[in-house]
Amino acid sequence: MSTMRAARFHAQKDIRVDEVPVPTPGNGQVLIDVAWCGICGTDLHEYLEGPIFIPQCGHPHPISGEEPPVVMGHEFSGVVAALGEGVTDLEVGDHVVIEPYIIRPDVNTGPNSKTYHLSQDMNFIGLGGHGGGLAEKIAVDRRWAHKISKDVPLDEAALLEPLTVGFHAVERSDVQHGDVALIGGAGPIGLLTAAVLKAQGVTVVMSELSALRRQKAIESGVADHAFDPRETDVVEEVKKLTDGRGADVAFECTSVQVVLDTLMDAVRPRGVIVVVSIWGHRSDFDIHKLVMKEIDLRGTIAYVNNHPATIELLESGKIDLKPFITGRTGLDGLVDEGFDTLIHRNETAVKILVSPSGEGL
């Protein structure tokens, strides 16, 4: 049996590069040579605090049937290497990105569904099982493989997954062309949410501590204004920019209480706040202010039938993802170079990509 290298989560702070069998595509599946896989904040939380989305040892995931060790990585692009029986609408050599869901087979995931991402026991490829992008190859159901133009470089295509998170968050906000949006946090998700907003004709204001990330926001063109909240009264600046009205919409991308409080003050009456970040703790904000301003507070998680529209947006050239790729490494550098940088020096990086085969380095 042929083998390949894969980064697998064994336990908290224990990720190893193992030799595992090369998967074979089953009926209705495609085999993908992984080109690039991004390191996500969720991966860092699993490493430091997990398992969270990853199943507990002794408690296999109810859909995948897997428990640690599991292959990690859910933000990835690749090339179709083989087709399973019944797959006729892709060809070997096609470039694809993955919508990395693990969902019960009886759930409607058709093109009109708006809720499959909220279904019982939902999890993600690269966390809950079914392989992952931090491996040389992966077999996935055809439903979750989305063809992308070969004009889009595969490294940039690996950012399509977090870009789609931003796309869905913007969709949840009901923002309109010409509105003013405030984003709390210019990490990868904040920056990519800003990119979607700019592509839709929205004025974007960002609040961010990191000088590098503020610079990225301005130089990449995804933000019109980027403020350091330690030096600038963000609420007052937003009011100046909106003739005292306040932002029409705001996006919370940090899971930090003071940021959410700032957004509550900065949005206009009847404004919308979308909470994009994953909070590992309870929030404690001024609910009286929410009532008195009639603020609409909304949650968002991942994406649901958003990949086709996001791919179309990227292929149109309205979004440039190159500026957000700030590092590259192989599987052997995953923890010491990739994770370590993002955990201890995250102000110096945005998105670090991994080449599982090493061919991209």
TrEMBL record:
InterPro entries: ADH-like_C, ADH-like_N, ADH_Zn_CS, ER, GroES-like_sf, NAD(P)-bd_dom_sf. Its EC number is 1.1.1.-, 1.1.1.303, 1.1.1.4. It is an enzyme of class 1 (oxidoreductase). Residues 11-354 form the Enoyl reductase (ER) domain. Its cofactor is Zn(2+). GO terms for molecular function: (R,R)-butanediol dehydrogenase activity; diacetyl reductase ((R)-acetoin forming) (NAD+) activity; zinc ion binding. Keywords: Metal-binding, Oxidoreductase, Zinc. It comes from the Bacteria. Belongs to the zinc-containing alcohol dehydrogenase family. This is (R,R)-butanediol dehydrogenase/meso-butanediol dehydrogenase/diacetyl reductase.
